[in-house]
Each structure stands twice: as C-alpha cells, then as structure tokens.
Specification:
42% helix; two-stranded antiparallel ribbon; single chain; five-stranded antiparallel sheet; alpha+beta
Length: 340
C-alpha cells in the first residue's frame, strides 16, 4: 500500500475500513452487498477455525495472482470469457476474526490496483441467497425454465441501464441446469462425500433425496436397537422405526408413479434400486417371527416382538419392483450394398 501511494500517485488509496458484526452470516450478507456495488469478488485463501471459533480468515480479490495453466480441452472457455487472473497484484483484501466477545471484526482494504467494472461480473458466483433459492426449487423438482421465471423477477428488469451491475441478472437457464446436475451428482455419492451444505435438501423434494435420508434413518434405528439408552425405551424406538417406514413408503410409491409417467434417467433408477436393496436387507431383521431382547440397563432385559404394522410395511418393500428405464431404440442400419 505504501508503495502504491508513493510510486503510483494516479491511484487513489482509500483508508482501511473497520466494521463489526454480531454473526458471521451478517458479515456474509454485507460481503455480498459490497461485491455487488463494486463489481468485485473476494475468495477465501486461508484461515483457521479452532473449536468453533473463527480466527483470521483472509479474503483476497479474485484478480490477484498470476494466470493458471490449464490442460488442453475440447472447448476453450478462456477464449470466450478471458482469464480472471491476468498477473495483477491487487491490494484489496478482507481480514475477519472473532474477538473475546463473540463479535466478528472486519478489517477491509477497499482499494483495487486494477480496473474493474460490470464486465468482470461474468467471473463471479451468484449471491448466496439466490443460490439457496435455486437449490430449494431444484429439490422440489421444478424445471430450470420455471426456476428461471421465478428467480429473475426479484431483480431489475433486463432492459434497465444498470442491469449489468447486478450479479443476479447474469443468471441463465444453462447455469441452473448445471447447478441441478452438480446437486444430483453430489447426492448420488455416499453421504460421507456429499456436500454438507446440501444435507437439508435430503429431507424434501425429489424422492432420491428422501431415500438417502431414509437410509440414514434406518442406520440410526439399527444403532438404537443394538445400543439402547435410558432416555428412550425399546418400544418407543421401535415405534419410531414403524413411523419412518410408513412415511417413506409413500415416497417410493410416488417415485414409481412418476417413473411410469415419464422417462427417468437410468443412473437414478440404478442408484434407487441399490438403496432399496440395502433397505430390504435391514428390514428383514425385523420380521415378525423374531423376538428381540433389549438391555435397558445392566440388570434388566426387555423382550418384545415387532407389530403387525411393520410386517405390512416390510411386505410392501419386498413386493416393490423397480420399473425399467425407457431407452430410445435405434433403427437397424441397412447395408447399402445389400439393398442394391
């Protein structure tokens, strides 16, 4: 900063800004607003979190740094959009830390040592609120076109003069389709590698999300049956299993109905089938001809048998048949020589 003040008098260096926030979410909202007004974007490069306490998070301007080498691709995105990093050294940065009073303190250096404007918005991500709204719409199985129609009216009209200064107006249908693809891909992976931010979506919307949640519920039920605690007795825990099965059986029925009415991607059906197979194996341990001895404490053993309600649910799972994926049939090729 001192170098720019003395060697580059044409650049006006602004004084650092100190602000405080009661919550980290409040800081993120302010950050979105600041990036919106300055057509900039700050990325977190380093920092540390110790026992849920944030200390020294650093955010730097995305234009700071040298260009990265990329492997040869079939389509050259850099040729269309240009490089966001072109060898600039930008002094704009943010430093955030949590003080002893649980207040978040920001030290902000707002001066950029390069030109910036609306044309740089193409490199920025969507606002957090917009991204969350899109994820929720996708989870409700809303088409990208309908999501686009719902989100865009919340911003300025596209024929306004200042439309290019608003990040949300850079939203396109293709961008929504890409978010949906990444969302489904993340949830098809095992729950340990899925994005934690997407976990709230597992309980709503598309059946494949709900099936992931059901799988987790049954794993937890198994754990409770094997290792009971004093807070909940064995019958209460068992009744919770019955309730979860009744709720999620309707999810499976809805999925089957939708699969019969329209084409369903083959990888979705394959994953759904594998999850159901795992559920059947778990449910078979709850057949009505077995009794279970639950050790509530070191001195008492509780014996009970599953209810008829659970037997009905189990039979529905075992009777479930995965609909086959509709494939487009290719017409047989005709040999030109033979036809002649």
């Amino acid at each position: 900063i001192n170098h720019i003040r003395h060697s580059h008098p044409d650049i006006s260096v602004k004084e650092p800004i100190i602000k405080t926030f009661q919550t980290f979410e409040e800081f993120l909202q302010w950050k979105d607003s600041e990036e919106e007004s300055t057509c900039s974007y700050f990325t977190q490069k380093n920092g540390m979190s110790n026992h849920d306490k944030i200390s020294n998070l650093y955010y730097y301007c995305q234009h700071d740094g040298s260009a990265k080498d990329h492997s040869v691709r079939k389509t050259n995105k850099c040729a269309r959009r240009g490089r966001v990093k072109a060898g600039h050294f930008c002094i704009a940065k943010m430093k955030v830390w949590e003080d002893k009073n649980k207040t978040f303190v920001l030290q902000y250096f707002p001066t950029h040592s390069h030109q910036y404007g609306p044309k740089h918005l193409n490199y920025n991500t969507l606002p957090e609120s917009t991204s969350t709204s899109i994820n929720e719409e996708i989870a409700e199985e809303v088409s990208p076109i309908e999501v686009f129609k719902t989100i865009t009216p919340t911003y300025a009209y596209r024929n306004r003069e200042n439309v290019k200064s608003i990040r949300g107006n850079l939203l396109t249908k293709q961008r929504i389709r890409e978010k949906a693809r990444r969302l489904y891909m993340s949830l098809r992976l095992n729950k340990g590698s899925a994005n934690p931010k997407l976990h709230p979506l597992l309980t709503r919307g598309k059946p494949i999300f709900r099936i992931h949640k059901l799988n987790e519920d049954l794993d937890q039920c198994n754990e409770h049956l094997l290792h009971p605690t004093e807070e909940n007795n064995a019958s209460d825990r068992f009744n919770s299993i019955v309730s979860r099965l009744e709720t999620n059986m309707s999810v499976i029925n809805n999925f089957v109905a939708s699969a019969k009415q329209k084409k369903v991607e083959e990888h979705v059906l394959s994953h759904f089938d594998s999850v159901l197979s795992n559920l059947v194996l778990q449910l078979q341990s709850y057949e009505s001809d077995k009794s279970y001895k639950m050790q509530v404490n070191h001195m008492e053993l509780v014996t009970f048998r599953p209810q008829e309600k659970l037997k009905t649910q189990l039979s529905q799972y075992l009777a479930f048949k995965m609909p086959k994926c509709k494939r487009k049939t290719q017409p047989d090729s005709v040999d030109v020589d033979e036809s002649k």
